[in-house]
């Protein structure tokens, strides 16, 4: 009896341990099956994973592989979930068959690196050189007894008189000078220093008065030699040029400072050029400017930019630029209309045709051909426009091919696919969710071509979902 008790106790312990281990094992398996079922349910909730071709989106398979048409690796097409960045980039591509490119008039051009020269064209008006203008005025009050210049447009020389004026004050000043000369000669030998030196002071004072009245040095010397005053005083012009305004009339009485003539030296003229506000930043001081006038076909006048005005005309939206240039033969007349051009070197830069860049208002887009028939939208930053070419600052590299024509049709194809295209984000436009590439619409000129049949059996039509 004692032996049976000793055996029964260990057996009971073993049975209890086996029962506990079996219960734990059943509980653990049930928990694992529950977790696996949850994962499978979550995966099923995410949607079925399909695979498609980026160049031929109508090819859809349920497992990875290659496209039966072009041989490219298939990418995931996830329904009900967002694609990753790489897939999103592939979805933005637009593929066109050769026939579609012909019908859409799509032509590609290679981006090239070339030296650029910006040409700024503007219109201008010939003006007087303000630094070469002068007025002939009366230095003393009196009467104009004689005019040597009677017409506007006459050429006057700096060394020749233009008029003669009779002035009682001038005659009196000449007499005072002659008396001072006589007094100096009379008292110069006086033993009293103050008297001998006082004569020199009187001569200097009378001489200075004549100079202030406009009498020239050679006229004073002639007065001293002749010993009698001149009744009429010749008036000279301060510079040589053309009379642009005649105010004086022979016999007219004038006061001190009254203008008689306006003189302009036309050997050098100004041209005020109107440059639009989007181009005046290219203008710098000292730049060479070519001036052309309709009055002289085939003749080009060259000048330099001497000044850029610090304000803008609010009506014409232009900035005035002053060009100074020589005028041999006085061919350029004031108020004459001319055409001006400035060539500004921009250095070497990457260039594309103007038609290759679409400006949406918020961004500038170019369609770059990644592979034959496959285009990718690129945001580009452009600089100056030179003729039919655009300077590309970023976005396109030299050697890449861009769509020079048909870019808007490629963008329309991208819109129909739901990938957004170049106009993504524009106000008033709804872009479909970027999940999977939608089949291209069958509108005129964009109908996808049917895939060719394989030799020896043909292609599985179950792969195509039109």
Automatic annotation (TrEMBL):
Residues 415-466 are annotated as: Disordered. One of its GO terms (biological process) is plasma membrane copper ion transport. Residues 268-342 form the CusB-like beta-barrel domain. Keywords: Cadmium resistance, Transport, Zinc. InterPro entries: 3HB_CusB, Beta-barrel_RND_2, BSH_CusB, CzcB_C, HMBD, MFP_Cation_Efflux, RND_pump_MFP. Residues 350-410 form the CzcB-like C-terminal circularly permuted SH3-like domain. It holds the Pfam family HMBD. Residues 51-77 form the Heavy metal binding domain. Residues 198-229 form the CusB-like three alpha-helical bundle domain. GO terms for cellular component: membrane; outer membrane-bounded periplasmic space. Transmembrane segments: none annotated. It comes from the Bacteria. GO terms for molecular function: transition metal ion binding; transmembrane transporter activity. Residues 134-264 form the CusB-like barrel-sandwich hybrid domain. CzcA and CzcB together would act in zinc efflux nearly as effectively as the complete czc efflux system (CzcABC). The CzcB protein is thought to funnel zinc cations to the CzcA transport protein. Belongs to the membrane fusion protein (MFP) (TC 8.A.1) family. This is Metal ion efflux pump, RND family, membrane fusion protein. It comes from Geobacter metallireducens (strain ATCC 53774 / DSM 7210 / GS-15).
